[in-house]
Amino acid sequence: MHGAATPAGAGASRSAAGPDAPPSSAQIEAAAMSASQTGSPEARQQLQRWARQGLPVAERELGTLYRKQPERLGAARQLLEHAARAGDVEAAFQLGELLRAGGPAQAGQPARAWPWYRQAAEGRHAKAALTLGQMAANGEGVRKDAAVSVQWLAVASELGNAHAMFLLSNAYRYGVGVERDERKGLKWLEEAAEHEYPPALQDLALAVQNDDAQRAGHLLKEASEHRRNNWNKY
Predict the structure, then answer these.
(1) What is the number of structural domains in the chain?
(2) Where are the alpha helices (H) located in the chain, listed in sequence order?
(3) Is 195 part of any domain?
(4) How far is the C-alpha of 159 from the C-alpha of 157, rounded, in Å?
(5) Contact 157/190 with Cβ under 8 angstroms?
(6) Contact 201, 219 (CB under 8 A)
(7) Compositional bias (Polar residues) at which positions (predicted)?
(8) pLDDT by residue (tens digit) across 126-160?
(9) Residue 16 has pLDDT above 60, yes or no
(10) Is residue 79 part of a domain?
(11) Torsion sign across C-alpha atoms 119, 121, 127, 130
């Protein structure tokens, strides 16, 4: 099945590299997608074999797969931690998510999640940086600190996360955790709107309605069109 379904380019790459060459990240992720979306036992077994070889991407993908199975949360945590310690940024983020959420037999542990989110954020993981900003703002797992929140929201914003841009805009507009700066607030609101983030489109419409009613109407229409499609992306 795998031989018949493998793209010619992938097969040629393996042949050129030799039969004992480790799989590429793309091959591992393709097997993980097959195991997750189709329930392919062959793909799952291959993923397990690669994880036993200590390949961080395979450990991360198998750990992420196990996160969906309450009885395997312990195994998921071990796999993700091993991959994260090997430097896998996405594994660090997924481990943070697992620890923060907890499971049926264990409450969430945001304080333990924080350093893993931080590792991921320092590896330029935008959503990890956003999460740190939210946790610091709410005092979740760490001392409540609006200034620290702004620092991480700025990191996430620079990495292109629209939700973070919107929150950073509010911080500047209302002077929360940072000196009030309407110009910077509007800049980040515009950036978030450019990324089609519905709350930013709505707030920007309100901000410009007195000076440009036509643009405000367009922004509100755009927010309505994008809300269902974009809301879960951030």
Answers:
(1) 1
(2) 2-5, 8-17, 25-37, 41-52, 56-66, 73-85, 89-101, 110-122, 126-138, 146-158, 162-174, 182-194, 198-208, 213-230
(3) no
(4) 5
(5) no
(6) yes
(7) 34-48
(8) 999 999 999 999 999 999 999 999 999 999 999 99
(9) no
(10) yes
(11) positive
Query: Tokens 């809300």, residue?
Result: 227
Question: CA 222, CA 228: separation in Å to the nearest integer?
Answer: 11
Tokens representing residue 129 in the block: 């940086």
Structural domain boundaries, residue 49: 24-123
pTM here is: 0.82
Q: Is residue 186 situated within a structural domain? A: no
Task: Using the structure block, give the residue that is written with the tokens 């097969």.
Answer: 11
Task: State in Å, rounded, how far the first CA of the chain is from the last one.
Answer: 36
Determine the Cα–Cα distance for residues 95 and 125; give it in Å rounded to an integer: 13
CA distance 72 to 152: 32
